[in-house]
Amino acid sequence: MRNKLSKLGPGLLFAGAAIGVSHLVQSTRAGADFGWGFIWALILVNLFKYPFFQYGPRFTVATNTSLLDGYYKLGKGYLRAYFVLNIATMFTIQTAVTIVTAGLASQIFGVSDNLVYWSVAITLICTVILWIGKYATLDRIVKWVILTLTITTIIAVGLASIKNTTPLSLVQIFPAETNLLFLIAFMGWMPAPMDISIWHSLWTIEKNKELSSKVTMKESLFDFNVGYWVTLILGACFMGLGVFVMFGTGTEFSSQGGVFASQLINLYTSTLGTGVYFLIAIAALTTMFSTTITTLDASPRAMNKTIELLYPKRKRNDYKLWLLILACGTISIFVFLLSEMGLLIRIATVLSFITAPFYAFLNFKLVRSDQMPKKDKPGKGLQILSVFGLLFLTSFAVGYLLIL
């Protein structure tokens, strides 16, 4: 067990990237607005996305190459398509997670309520950390963040359920057209955007570089499952906080970052008491900070690998160049575009949901290809779940496009 724990890393980075906007914002809001009515969506989207996320570490451990290497061997067109999609989404996603972090920092420290200043400062801090520390720093930070958040969240939802006096209702809801966009956004980042499977495969390679012995398939899947199921449990917990504290009260979440951050932290303190405000505030802030820094690391890492594959004669590492591009692009959005947090989150999550079938199809195609050793290919049960997952993700994506 000690050996397994020492090799935990990429799966927890996955959790660190996933447990952010989708959980702190979307799950809590779903519970506050619809009670337990969206629990079906939470369960189904986690179930049907599971195999496609798992194929990231599975493929990487089996072949010692990343998913991007696999896409390239399937055909350059797939890798070029990924490049275009990533360019179209990475700035919006980074902006969305950073502005939530900025709202929390503004609420906690109170130095300024200007979210632009906070967002720029957080982006610069994360950039410097990644420039100096790279993967090893991420690996150390996120383990403690996930542990802290898991413990405080489970305690909070347990106490909230005890204090709750509203009768429990598990009536499930499929929203009318006016709320369908929220459902799509909710599932878009639950538990995470599908392209995080690519990030996971790149982090797995980095983890192997740091260990004296290569991670085995069993160890890698254990690491993945720990991170993945933690995201599902906490997704349900955050929905529960929304249900127990805000559902039926008539209170709505604000789209303004600072006000929303105050409401979010009060979900904890109203159940645990004001005496633990500082602990809860820091836990929430570090969670969003881990999401911000992991996304800021992952997109440049993926873009660097993509350029390396498409242009093999370019003998240089462009990770730091892409890190600067993403940081500068994110800061430019904050400085020159007036946007509300809710709108930014909605755009990022919807884009993620629409592109999910593309990444799911590629990952499924890859693990069934000749690149994958026969002994490491997914079993029949996982392949059947993959087919249903593709149908589920494609149906919702097409349905959303038809109602636009």
Terminal CA distance reads: 50 Å
Q: How can the largest sheet be summarized?
A: none
CATH topology: Amino acid/polyamine transporter I
**pLDDT below 50 for ≥5 consecutive residues: which ranges?**
none
| Overall radius of gyration | 20 Å
Please identify the top-level CATH class. Mainly Alpha
Overall structural domain count: 1
Number of strands: 0
Question: How would you spell out the order of helices and strands?
Answer: HHHHHHHHHHHHHHHH
Question: What is the typical, i.e. mean, pLDDT?
Answer: 82
Shape, principal axes of CA atoms: globular
CATH architecture: Up-down Bundle
**Structural class of the secondary structure composition?**
mainly alpha
Q: Helical content, roughly?
A: over 70%
Strand percentage: under 5%
Can you describe this structure?
This protein is an all-alpha fold. It has a single domain, classed as Amino acid/polyamine transporter I, CATH 1.20.1740. Helices cover 79% and strands 0% of the residues. It is built from 16 helices and no strands. The chain has helices at 2-6, 10-18, 21-34, 39-63, 67-74, 76-109, 115-132, 134-163, 177-188, 196-210, 217-245, 257-272, 277-310, 319-336, 341-367, 380-403. Helix 2 runs antiparallel to helix 10 (196-210), helix 6 crosses helix 12 and helix 8 (134-163) runs parallel beside helix 11. It is globular, with a radius of gyration of 20 Å. The mean pLDDT is 82.
